[in-house]
Amino acid sequence: MAAVTLLETSALCKRFGGLQAVREVNFSLAQGEIRAIIGPNGAGKTTLVGIISGRIKPSSGTITFKGEDITRLKSCQRVMRGIVYTFQVTSVYATLTCYENVALAAQRRLMTGAKGFLTLGEAAIAERVESALDAVGLAASMERPAGELPYGYQRLLEIAMGLALEPELLIMDEPTQGLAEEEIAEFCALTRKIAGRATVLLIEHNMPVVLQLAHKITVMDRGTVIAEGTPAEIEADAEVQRAYLGT
Ligand SMILES: Nc1ncnc2c1ncn2[C@@H]1O[C@H](COP(=O)(O)OP(=O)(O)OP(=O)(O)O)[C@@H](O)[C@H]1O
Ligand SMILES: [Mg+2]
Q1: Taking the CB of residue 36, how many other CB atoms lie within 10 A of it?
Q2: What pLDDT sits at residue 110?
Q3: Which end of the chain is less crowded, N or C, counting CB atoms within 10 A of the terminal residue's CB?
Q4: Which of 19, 20, 244 to mutate to test the pocket of ligand 1 (most atoms within 8 A of CB)?
Q5: In angstroms, what is the span from residue 115 Cα to ligand 2's centroid?
Q6: Rg value, the chain, Cα
Q7: pLDDT of residue 114
Q8: Which domains does the chain carry?
Q9: What atom in ligand 1 is closest to the CA of residue 220?
């Protein structure tokens, strides 16, 4: 089956004052794939996905999602189209229960910008929340305040918050940061499960995770894409080894 393009960026640039964080990036994602973006600190990875999710305005360039130019849409409008982003830094509400955290997230997809909120019925919310918590293995902790969960579980809760938005594209920024070995294994299993219903874009420093999960890897360095290919191709790429793998 020929790959269907889900997302495409064209000559995307972002300057922060004199610093060019993202330069002329042409990046595209096929529907259903798991893509990893790797690269050294400061390469522009978070900035690139920030532009895709709408959190950061590009200096120039365009983004197309399912054939629609979304460059000027706000992040909540992108959420409504199914583009969901989980932060590099954990951002759950510590005093709310896991259920409440996910329920709040679930309602975001129905936010209608200028018109305020359109709420889902309680039963519909409960169903989404329970299914999202169940997917990440936190169904039993539904009534616990999020702040009481071990850090690794807070990261999983964040993913559940993303899943409750029923993403078509789920973007995760360093999801395994701070996770223990066995939590990382759970994360990998979870990501494969998610990939059955959404396209997954993840920024990840953990190479074993990248190599086992990604269908394709994009390597960034100093704001540009320096290589792209299958895990085997990237491992064999001399420029990547020099810039990133440190060999
Ligand atoms: N809001 C900002 N204002 C000024 N400079 C910024 C801002 N955000 C990012 N930068 C700079 O842009 C460059 C790219 O940053 P970015 O966070 O995208 O890198 P990254 O690849 O995600 O790095 P890391 O692996 O450390 O998360 C860095 O030099 C960073 O200092
Ligand atoms: Mg980053």
Answers
A1: 25
A2: 61
A3: N
A4: 19
A5: 33
A6: 18
A7: 42
A8: 1-82+167-247 (3.40.50.300), 93-165 (no CATH)
A9: 21
- 80 C-alpha vs ligand 2 centroid, how far in Å? 24
- pLDDT at position 88 is 60
> Whose structure tokens read 């874009």?
201
Structure tokens at 45: 């990875």
Which two three-digit tokens encode residue 80?
A: 């409504």
Residue pLDDT, tens place only, 176-231: 988 889 889 989 999 999 998 899 999 999 999 999 999 999 999 999 999 999 99
- How far apart (Å, rounded) are the C-alpha atoms in residues 149 and 98? 9
Determine the atom of ligand 1 nearest the C-alpha atom of 14: 12
Mutate to test the pocket of ligand 1, among 46, 172, 206, 225 (most ligand atoms within 8 A of CB): 46
Quote the CA–CA distance of 166 and 147 in Å, as a whole number: 24
On whether the CB atoms of residues 139 and 99 are closer than 8 A, the answer is no
Looking from the CA of 19 toward its CB, the CA atoms found within 13 Å total 8
Distance 42 CA to ligand 2 centre (A): 7
Task: Quote the ligand 2 centre to 117 CA distance (angstroms).
Answer: 31
Q: With 90 as the cut, is the pLDDT of residue 80 above it?
A: no
**For the CA of 50, the nearest atom of ligand 1:** 18
| Cβ of residue 22 lying under 6 Å from some atom of ligand 1 | no
Partners of 221 in the β-ladder:
224
Residues whose beta carbons lie less than 5 angstroms from ion ligand 2: 46
Quote the ligand 1 centre to 41 CA distance (angstroms): 8
Q: Tell me, what amino acid is at 139?
A: A
User: 19 is written with which tokens?
Assistant: 């610093």
